[in-house]
Amino acid sequence: MFLEHHRGRTTRHSIDPSSYQCTTLVSQLADEWLKVTHRVALSGGGCEYSGAVRSFAKFTDKYLSAAGLDPADARLDGHAVDLVEVLYAWEGDLRQRYGPKSKQPYRRARALLALIDQRATITAGIPGHLRQRAKAPVSYGKPTPQPLDEFSNAERVALRDAARAAVRGTEARLARGRELLAAGSDPRDGGWRNLPNLVWATRMRMVNSRTLQAHLPGKARWWPPEVVDLLPAQEGASRGPGVRALGRELGRLLFPDEFDLQAFRVLFLLGMADTTPEELHDLQMGDIEFTDGGLRLVQTKLRASRIRADLHPEVDMKGGDEGGAEEFASGGAWDVPGLMRRLLAATALIREVFDPDPYLFVAVRQDVANGELCAGVAQFASPRYRFGFWIASQRGAQGRTLNISVPHEVRRLRKTTKVVRSVALGGTVSDLAGDDHHVEVYRGHYGHGTTAHIMAGRSINRSQEWVFNRLARNPVLVDEAAEERLEEPEVAEELGMDIEVAKAMRAGELDMGLTNCRNPYDSPHRTDNKLCHVAPAMCMLCRNAVIFYSQLPRLLLMSDRIEQMRTALPPPRWHAIYGQQRAALDEVFAECPDRLPAARQQITELGIRLDLPLGQRTEFDR
């Protein structure tokens, strides 16, 4: 038996072989469980292993009995029962029971096979096929979960505002409770029908269902009006005594419950980019230190076995704590240090009255048996205290329920904070990962979000726009009259060239095979001032290109080549590679449509062909 202590709760893990018909089999597996737990010092006593053994034992009893076999004959080193068959049937039953999206079938089967393999390694007599099965992978692999997306910015703001309003409401309620407590006295002397006295009795832990039933009238409508007003609407309208509801509401006047702490939890996760929900819940009073510069938190990341200290500086936010109760007001409004002060002030009376475990998130709950108030570490596991229920209970500025996308998973808050940080910082993935993650962890768990994709798309669009603006300047089409005057200073200057370049162009020295080029050594496709290496295929997307009418036949041949590629490539790929060139050619042809028939005739009569480099011709002709 192992006892697991976690966040103020103690869980007992044990295996009792006598509870099953296959006693020998369970005893052997339980021995291996004890060995692996002691040797590896597993946290939680290896609950996955013990849970797998209990599940397999329960299934084996049922399966063998239905097959007409005696479960007592099942053992790892025996041959009376084929345990391999039982294992496969058990894995199939787990899959059917938990569903294909659950990790439980994989985890339990892996744990049980590990125990059998450990036994087979050091013990003789294990059947060979059982040894082979223990070394083989589980039947159903670990499912790949759908990554959680972050909340949108509008949802983040709505959650933040709702949480702030909830914190203000909690502080106002607790402030009223402090006032009632100061005005109250012992109800055994001053009477039980006075609300301040009931609050005083609650502070002294004298209130429970039996006490309230003994000192208050049997019907809630006979109670004092101020006491009836304290009840929730559904309880006040019922004919029942309502003492449990009264005890709960009296406690909420002095102590926050888990529902109240949910708002603090939301604000912390939205304000602390490097803190997981688990790290936040595991914070203890000794991990919290206020310094001159802000708040220092010592946090433990269990999966990484890493302890780190984070400093959260004070933020001077003008406006302070608008609307908050004065005694709960913080020095830093809604920054992390100020929020921590508010939480500690709200839970101070819990620590004074109940002396719970020294965790940060402590709350008061009502005992199911007698309605007595008790305190413990907030688990946020009960349906009425979960994140989704909290969201459904909140109202926006217009009194409407919050429109928050599902799933209502608290881990999405952390992803949202990470995305906000990436939007603010920009930079590379290594910059965004910071010191909290490896780059690949950030890529896999945070870089897939919608906002990250939108940012990446915008960056790509900006880059492409810059490239196209730099490259995609249409070539200049020069008619015969301008070509004859090309060497004149005014004409050459208008075309962006000097006299020497104009002379060389007229002499055919700058003919690139498709168009002329103002400067082959100033290609926008390279930055090393060397001869252009992509002519003539990319000439139609070059700012240096100059076209004479005599080159129209070659442009038509180039257009025909590009059209041939439509049948060889998928449309998206064709548009990505040739779409810009096709558009540039169409603009040139639109300026001289009357010249195209004559150019087509020249191709036929003179046998004009398009000369392309070997690599580019292979690209077109494949």
Describe this structure in words.
It contains 27 helices and ten strands. The protein has helices at residues 23-40, 47-66, 83-98, 104-122, 128-135, 153-183, 187-190, 195-203, 209-215, 225-228, 233-236, 243-254, 258-271, 277-281, 336-354, 387-393, 411-425, 429-433, 439-445, 450-471, 480-484, 489-494, 499-506, 552-564, 571-591, 596-606, 614-621; strands at 2-6, 9-13, 288-291, 294-301, 306-313, 362-366, 373-377, 476-478, 516-517, 545-548. The strands form four sheets. Strands 3-4-5 form a three-stranded antiparallel β-sheet. α1 (23-40) packs antiparallel against α2 (47-66). It is flat and about 115 Å long. The two termini are 72 Å apart.
Layout: helices, strands, pairs:
Layout: E1 2-6, E2 9-13, H1 23-40, H2 47-66, H3 83-98, H4 104-122, H5 128-135, H6 153-183, H7 187-190, H8 195-203, H9 209-215, H10 225-228, H11 233-236, H12 243-254, H13 258-271, H14 277-281, E3 288-291, E4 294-301, E5 306-313, H15 336-354, E6 362-366, E7 373-377, H16 387-393, H17 411-425, H18 429-433, H19 439-445, H20 450-471, E8 476-478, H21 480-484, H22 489-494, H23 499-506, E9 516-517, E10 545-548, H24 552-564, H25 571-591, H26 596-606, H27 614-621
Parallel strand pairs: 8-10
Antiparallel strand pairs: 1-2, 3-4, 4-5, 6-7, 9-10
